C-alpha cells in the first residue's frame, strides 16, 4: 500500500469570536492518521473557560446588532465571501480531511464542494427570505415577524466537519444568529482551516467561534445559559442526552441523529441500473454516514440473483490508501470504530446471517484501521445487524414477498432518516416512496441532499436542516397585534 499522506498543520491557538487566542488550558488533541496509526498533528483542546469566552463573545455580538443591523445585501455578500475563502483553501482542506479521517480524495472533494454550496445556497435564500408578513383576521390585524433565535451552540461530528459546520453556520448566520461550533476530537484540523476562511471573510467580531473538544466540552456548551439554541449532529444516544439537557431550560434544539435506512428493490428493477447509486449510498465513506442505505430489501423471486450481483460489486471495491486514485474505501476513523464494526460482524454471524463477502480485515494491511466491505444475506429484520446503526461498510440484504411486506419492513425501524426505492415503473416508485416513514427518500437513485430539507422521523432526529426550512430552524416567530 502506498502512503501519499499530506502534511497536516498543527495549531496552537483557538478561534474565539473571530480571533485567534491562547487557550485557557494546556490540553492538546493528538490527531492520529487512521491509515498509518501515527500522530500527524496536534491542536489545542477547548475547556469550559474557552466555551464561556466564546458564548460571551457571541452574546455581545448578537446583542450589539453588529450583524443583524447590516443590510441584507451586505450579509449576502459576507456569506458569499466565506464561500470564496473556502474555495481558495480547498486543496489543503481536502488533503487534510483525507489525512485525519481517512476519506478517499473523491469523498473529501465531494464533502468540501458541498460546504461551498451551502454558503452559496443560503446567501441566495437570504436575498428573498420573507422575515415579515402582514395578516388580517376577524376585526384585527398584525405583523408576523421572524427573528433570529440568538446564540447557537452547534455540535458537529468528525465524518464531514467542514461540510457539517458550513451547513449549520451558513443557515444560522443567514437567520441573524451568532454561533459557537464544537467539532469532534477526530478531524479537528479541517475546522481550523474553516476558521481561517471565516476570519479572512471579515465577519463581525464575536460572531463565530470554533472550539474542538471532547464530550464534557460539548455538554458545557449545551448546558450554558447563554446558549439559546443547540444544533447537534451525531449519534441518537448522544442526541437523547442533549434533548434532556435542553428540556431543563426549554432551550431550542435541532437534532440530526442516526439511521438505518432501507432501499426497496422491486421485482422489475434492473440491477445494473441500481448499483451505481446504491453502492456509494450504502458503503461510501466506509459506511460512516448517518444516511447510509444499509438495509437492502429484494424480492424473494430474485433474491439470490440480487445478492450475487451486489456481493460481486462490493467484492470488487478497492480498499486502501485514501490518496490512491483507484481507492474506493479508506480506513475507518479510529481503532475504536473498527472494533465496533468487527463486533457487529460477529453479532451477525451469531444471529445466523450469512456472510456473502467481506467480514474481516483486508489482507496485507497490517497497519491502519481498515475493514472489508461486508454483505450479509439471509437476514431477518429482527436481527440486531438489521436494527442497529453500525456506522461501517456493512450491508444487510433482506428478502420480501410483496410490496406490502417490503413497506412494512422498511418502516419497522426506530429510525427514519433516508432511503431509496428502485422500480422499473417510476410512478410505482413514487407511490412506494410516499409510504416510507423517513425524512428523505430517493426514487431510482440514492444519496444525500442537504441543500433542501434534511432530517429524520422517529429516533433519527428532530427538525430540519437545509433550504428555507434550515434557515427557519434558527428563527423565533413573533406576532405584533394592532387593533382594527
Please explain how this structure is put together:
With 484 residues, the chain is α/β, with parallel strands linked by helices. It folds into 2 domains: 14-257 and 460-481, Aldehyde Dehydrogenase, Chain A, domain 1, CATH 3.40.605.10; 261-450, Aldehyde Dehydrogenase, Chain A, domain 2, CATH 3.40.309.10. The protein is 39% helix and 21% strand. The strands form 6 sheets. It has a 7-stranded mixed sheet with strand order 14-15-16-13-12-18-19, with helices on both faces. Helix 1 (48-64) packs parallel to helix 7 (215-223), helix 2 packs antiparallel against helix 4 and helix 3 (90-101) packs antiparallel against helix 6. The longest helix has 24 residues, at 105-128. It is globular.
Task: Furnish the topology, listing elements before pairings.
Blueprint: E1 14-16, E2 19-21, E3 28-32, E4 39-44, H1 48-64, H2 72-88, H3 90-101, H4 105-128, E5 132-137, E6 140-148, E7 151-155, H5 161-175, E8 178-182, H6 189-200, E9 208-210, H7 215-223, E10 229-233, H8 236-248, E11 252-256, E12 261-265, H9 271-283, E13 293-299, H10 303-315, H11 335-350, E14 354-357, E15 374-377, H12 384-387, E16 394-400, H13 403-411, E17 415-416, E18 419-422, H14 426-435, E19 442-443, E20 457-458, E21 461-462, H15 467-472, E22 475-483
Parallel strand pairs: 7-8, 7-10, 8-9, 10-11, 12-13, 12-18, 13-16, 15-16, 18-19
Antiparallel strand pairs: 1-2, 3-4, 5-6, 6-22, 11-21, 14-15, 17-20
Helix pairs in contact: 1-7, 2-4, 2-6, 3-4, 3-6, 4-5
Protein name: aldehyde dehydrogenase (NAD(+))
GO molecular function: aldehyde dehydrogenase (NAD+) activity
Active site: 256
Amino acid at each position: 500500500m502506498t502512503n501519499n499522506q499530506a502534511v497536516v498543520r498543527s495549531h496552537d491557538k483557538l478561534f474565539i469570536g473571530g480571533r485567534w487566542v491562547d487557550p485557557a488550558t494546556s490540553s492538546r488533541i493528538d490527531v492520529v492518521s487512521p491509515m498509518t496509526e501515527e500522530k500527524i498533528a496536534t491542536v489545542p483542546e477547548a475547556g469550559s473557560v474557552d466555551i464561556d469566552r466564546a458564548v460571551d463573545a457571541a452574546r455581545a455580538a448578537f446583542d450589539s446588532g453588529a450583524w443583524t443591523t447590516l443590510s441584507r445585501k451586505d450579509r449576502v455578500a459576507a456569506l458569499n465571501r466565506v464561500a470564496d475563502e473556502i474555495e481558495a483553501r480547498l486543496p489543503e482542506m481536502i488533503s487534510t480531511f483525507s489525512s485525519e479521517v481517512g476519506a478517499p480524495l473523491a469523498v473529501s472533494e465531494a464533502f468540501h464542494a458541498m460546504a461551498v454550496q451551502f454558503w452559496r445556497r443560503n446567501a441566495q435564500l437570504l436575498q428573498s427570505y420573507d422575515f415579515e408578513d402582514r395578516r388580517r383576521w376577524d376585526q384585527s390585524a398584525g405583523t408576523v415577524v421572524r427573528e433570529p433565535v440568538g446564540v447557537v451552540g452547534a455540535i458537529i461530528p468528525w465524518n464531514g466537519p467542514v461540510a457539517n459546520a458550513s451547513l449549520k453556520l451558513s443557515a444560522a448566520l443567514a437567520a441573524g444568529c451568532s454561533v459557537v461550533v464544537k467539532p469532534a476530537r477526530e478531524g479537528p484540523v479541517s475546522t481550523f482551516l474553516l476558521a481561517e476562511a471565516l476570519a479572512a471573510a471579515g465577519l463581525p467580531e464575536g460572531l463565530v467561534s470554533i472550539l474542538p473538544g471532547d464530550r464534557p466540552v460539548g455538554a458545557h456548551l449545551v448546558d450554558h445559559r447563554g446558549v439559546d439554541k443547540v444544533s447537534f449532529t451525531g449519534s441518537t444516544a448522544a442526541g437523547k442526552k442533549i434533548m434532556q439537557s435542553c428540556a431543563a431550560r426549554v432551550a431550542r434544539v435541532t437534532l440530526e441523529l442516526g439511521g438505518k435506512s432501507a432501499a426497496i428493490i422491486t421485482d422489475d428493477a434492473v440491477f445494473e441500473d441500481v448499483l451505481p447509486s446504491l453502492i456509494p449510498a450504502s458503503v461510501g465513506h466506509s459506511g460512516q454516514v448517518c444516511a447510509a442505505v444499509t438495509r437492502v430489501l429484494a424480492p424473494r423471486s430474485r433474491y439470490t440473483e440480487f445478492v450475487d450481483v451486489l456481493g460481486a460489486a462490493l467484492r470488487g471495491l478497492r480498499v486502501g490508501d485514501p490518496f490512491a486514485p483507484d481507492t474506493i474505501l479508506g480506513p475507518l476513523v479510529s481503532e475504536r470504530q473498527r472494533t465496533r464494526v468487527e463486533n457487529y460482524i460477529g453479532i451477525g454471524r451469531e444471529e445466523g446471517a450469512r456472510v456473502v463477502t467481506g467480514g474481516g480485515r483486508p489482507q496485507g494491511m497490517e497497519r491502519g484501521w481498515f475493514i472489508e466491505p461486508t454483505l450479509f444475506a439471509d437476514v431477518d429484520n429482527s436481527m440486531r445487524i438489521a436494527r442497529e446503526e453500525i456506522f461501517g461498510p456493512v450491508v444487510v440484504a433482506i428478502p420480501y414477498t410483496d410490496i406490502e411486506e417490503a413497506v412494512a419492513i422498511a418502516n419497522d425501524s426506530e429510525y427514519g432518516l433516508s432511503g431509496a426505492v428502485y422500480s422499473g415503473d417510476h410512478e410505482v416508485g413514487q407511490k412506494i416512496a410516499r409510504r416510507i416513514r423517513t425524512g428523505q427518500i430517493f426514487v431510482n437513485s440514492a444519496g444525500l441532499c442537504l441543500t433542501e430539507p434534511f432530517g429524520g422521523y422517529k429516533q433519527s432526529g428532530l427538525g430540519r436542516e437545509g433550504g428555507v426550512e434550515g434557515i427557519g430552524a434558527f428563527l423565533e416567530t413573533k406576532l405584533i397585534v394592532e387593533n382594527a
